[in-house]
Amino acid sequence: MKVLIIEDEPSLRNSIREYLEHQGFICEVAADFREAIDKVTDYEYDCIVADIGLPFGNGLDVVRELKSLKSKAGIIIISAKDSLEDKLSGLELGADDYLTKPFHLSELNARINALLRRKNFDGNTSISFFEITVVPASKTVLVHDKSITLTGKEYQLLMYFIANQHRVVTKSALAGHLWGDAYDQAGSYDFIYTHIKNLRKKMMEAGGEDYIKTVYGTGYRFG
Amino acid sequence: MKLLTKTTLYFIMIMLPVFAGGAFYLFHKFNREIKHETDEELANDQLQWLRYLDTASVDNPIFSFRTQEFQLIPTDQPVQKKFKLKGVTLYQETEDAQAPFRELSQVISIHGKHYQMILRKSLIEKDDLAKNIIYVMLLAFGGLLMFVILSNWFISRNVWRPFYRSLDKIRQLQLNKMETRRFPSTPTHEFNQLNEALNQMTDRIHQDYINMKELTEDAAHEMQTPLAIAQSKLELLLQDENLSENQLKNIGQTSEELQRLSRLNHNLLLLAKIENQQYPVTEQPDLHQVLVQYLSLFEELIREKELTVETDLAPTAPWPLHPALADILISNLLGNAIKYNYPEGLIHIRLTAKTFTISNTSNLPEIPAGNVFQRFRKSNLGYSNSNGLGLAIVKKIGDSYHIRISYQYLNGLHIFTASC
């Protein structure tokens, strides 16, 4: 899976790259508009992560260029601008997703994974992790080929963990992924624990191994 | 007091004594003049009488004459060289009243005999004349006064019209629409100066406002990038498997704080945007749907705390709000009701077409009325995951979109009401 990261801030660019490469993506980077245009015209990517504000141009123009090239690449815009209009104009141009800064790297990774599943396989594939198999099209989860029933939130949790295997994901990242911006109101992330506990229980009851490790005071690690 | 009333009053206050003094002076002048004329007439009559008495009645030297107009009475007093004049009042039988007269008296000698001669002239007719004249004068003065006051009023009204127009404009000034407000030039020099000064002032304020707005927005946007970098670095750091529990915990906490900062930034920006009316009312979102959506979104939180939620909802409630603001209004109020509740507490929600009321139990005491909607006026009683802007945002939405937001503490319940 080839991902192009278009971001002018070197630190952020490198963080994203490092995180994604660890998750098995092949990453290319572009630091400004010209470089981005050169890369998208010369090479094919599965997914493009583009910042809007770039030196020498606008990330939205990169999206336009990609559309005119009839590129099949999935596009995720990352921007500090979070107004509805900005989001809509980005999505209207043909971007697939819009993430406002600051975001969790695990969230970006989960979105890229979801996007690639939709784009490349039309969801008609299964993801496997040892004895666990997920069929996204039907939202079914099999443990040792035996179907288990998960609630919507538990399913989302599992998918998030699978996307971010072997990485520590923070509780706030999980809350943000599952409940959106409204999780601000929560007051605590304790309620996530209930979902984790249930997911863990259901998978272990089906004979699966416990892959969810609690990382003290921070979050969880899967696998 | 209105300027017009004030000038008119001052005008009356000045004109009244002047006019009264004038009338008084005229009255006296007339009286004196009439007296003088009468005296002259009397002197004239006296001359005629003396001439007549000197020649006539020579044969009848002793006689006496008594009428109101003319008296000739023998007397022993010495002859007076000059006559005396004075005013008297005499009884009039026919009218049964006293009437004013001028009287000329002199002791004269006719053929060696002394007589007291008294000549009188009634002042009544002349008095009437004076009265009439004064009456006419007063009428004329009064009319003049009225006329002057009225014309002053009309003139002032016209002259001050540009002033009131400017005043109206000032009253309607809004920060975000300031550049379209121009104070026009007027025919009056002073008002032109005033309007020019106002134009300059609004331009300056508007410019400052724009700069400030841009600064806050740019600052908020620019802050997101370093926040994103710090956030990503911490997340990468978390992946280091050699970290101790304590280090992991510290990184986790730093990450939390960073997100709080980011939310704070986001909310401040939101406040600024609501203030600048950057959320036009394009459609009327159904508050009922929004509420149901957030109730299901917060379902876990409610279940976690074992809260009882009682609802009394109208099937639809289209409110004149931007959809994003309807979301914020509901999520902030509902979120607070959950966050500040105690376990197994109660939330009651009532929604009609025009009002939304949410009440909740809480361990927190009543919030002082002055503080409840103020920025950063958060409770310090163990709810650290608050940036103190939630209610300020709710209030700002209310202020900007004509929705009344009120808070009440009743029977241990914190009650927030929004009504449009």
Verbal overview:
The complex is a heterodimer of chains A (223) and B (420). By secondary structure, chain A is an alpha/beta fold. Chain A folds into two domains: 2-121, Response regulator (Rossmann fold, 3-Layer(aba) Sandwich); 127-222, Winged helix-like DNA-binding domain superfamily/Winged helix DNA-binding domain (Arc Repressor Mutant, subunit A, Orthogonal Bundle). Helix content of chain A is 43%, strand content 24%. Chain A has helices at residues 10-22, 33-42, 59-68, 84-92, 105-121, 152-163, 171-179, 190-205, and strands at 2-6, 26-30, 47-51, 53-54, 57-58, 74-79, 97-100, 127-129, 132-135, 140-143, 146-148, 168-170, 212-215, 219-222. In chain A, helix 1 (10-22) links the parallel strand 1 (2-6) and strand 2 (26-30). In chain A, helix 2 (33-42) packs parallel to helix 3 (59-68). Chain A is globular, with a radius of gyration of 18 Å. Chain A starts with a strand and ends with a strand. Chain B has 420 residues and is α+β, with helices and mostly antiparallel strands. Chain B has three domains: 3-145, no CATH class; 189-275, Helix Hairpins (Orthogonal Bundle); 287-419, Histidine kinase-like ATPase, C-terminal domain (Heat Shock Protein 90, 2-Layer Sandwich). Helix content of chain B is 54%, strand content 17%. Chain B contains eight helices and ten strands. In chain B, strands 1-2-5-4-3 form a five-stranded antiparallel β-sheet. A five-stranded mixed β-sheet of chain B has the order 6-7-8-10-9. The longest helix of chain B has 53 residues, at 3-55. Chain B starts with a helix and ends with a strand. Chains A and B meet through helix 1, helix 7 and helix 8 of A and helix 3, helix 4, helix 6 and helix 7 of B.
